[in-house]
Design a protein that fits this description.
The chain is an alpha/beta fold. The chain is 42% helix and 13% strand. It contains three helices and three strands; from the N terminus they run αβαβαβ. Helix 2 links the parallel strand 1 and strand 2. The longest helix has 18 residues. The protein is elongated. 17% of the residues are buried.
Length: 119
């Protein structure tokens, strides 16, 4: 009986040490606690630069979304001025100026640590 228990104990420890591996992925949270505001330039009726295949407003939004994911995965709190195809103008009179004014007001009132505008 003692041989049996000893053999079982040896097999148990052998299997634990040989077959079980602990894999701990250390994530990079270097931006933990930081607040970052991302501004995808243009949007809505303001398309920005136009090429044969892309509009600047669409490319800006794609880049901002990718950057937001990277920053979020590093621990940052990320805010976007826009997450779809629209501008921030509240009036059609001087639409571009009104859009820029609303972006600045939104960002200044946020208290974020950093502001990045993609154009």
């Amino acid at each position: 009986m003692l041989k049996y228990k000893t053999l079982m104990l040896v097999i148990f420890f052998f299997s634990v040490f040989c077959f079980s591996r602990v894999n701990a992925n250390v994530r990079d949270y270097s931006l933990l606690g930081r607040c970052i505001y991302l501004d995808a330039g243009h949007g809505g009726v303001d398309s920005g630069a136009i090429s044969s295949t892309f509009l600047e407003k669409d490319m800006n939004l794609i880049l901002v979304n990718k950057l937001a994911n990277v920053l979020f995965n590093r621990g940052a709190m990320v805010f976007l001025t826009r997450d779809d195809d629209y501008d921030l103008a509240s009036s059609t009179i001087n639409r571009k100026r009104n859009d820029l004014y609303n972006r600045v007001k939104l960002i200044n009132n946020s208290g974020c640590d950093m502001y990045i505008s993609i154009h």
